[in-house]
Amino acid sequence: MRVAGLYSFNKGHGFITEKYPHLLEEILEIIEAVDAYQFMTKESREKTMPGRMLFNPRALNGSFSREFKPRGWVTTRVKCDYPTGYYTPGYQPKRIQRGAFRELDFLKEQLGVEVQFGKYAFMVYNVCAKMTIFHNLGYIAAGVEIVPVKDFADQLSTGVSYFEQFVWDLEQRGVSDIDIPVLILGINDH
Known about the structure:
Strand order of the largest sheet: 1-8-7-6-5-4
Helix content: 25-40%
CATH topology: Restriction Endonuclease
Order of helices and strands: EHHEEHEEEHEHHE
CATH architecture: 3-Layer(aba) Sandwich
Number of domains: 1
Low-confidence stretches: 41-48
Strand content: 15-25%
Radius of gyration: 18 Å
Shape: globular
């Protein structure tokens, strides 16, 4: 894999290259080490793409884990204790799900990394909510989001968002005073 796009949200690129140059280099090495072609699968949705070979997003996520974890990056979970004091009078909720949590894909030295080959909403959520939550809880100072560029997204077996769309949304949204520095890396298979 290779980095094909780079977007600095809230001065993320400058912050990370100044504070975490060694970790950014490690992330770039990890991206280069992932061989997307070993995860191609015969697409089973014959009506939409008969016989076309596409990349499997779950397998790609697993490949990134196999590269991050041996280098000391850890997956981090925080338990969610949902408040119950905001219901309107007379409303009795069913039992709230126990065991709810938020998870950061990879964490090392207060730099968080999310690898996203999933649904569109998670990309914006990761940067504008999840990373802010992990920052507020003292886990991270900055983040890196790894997402496919459009050319690569078109080769995935599930409909996903992509770097160009994500950047447009972030530029239209703007930066808030609670946002942390995040570097968005758009990757491609070649």
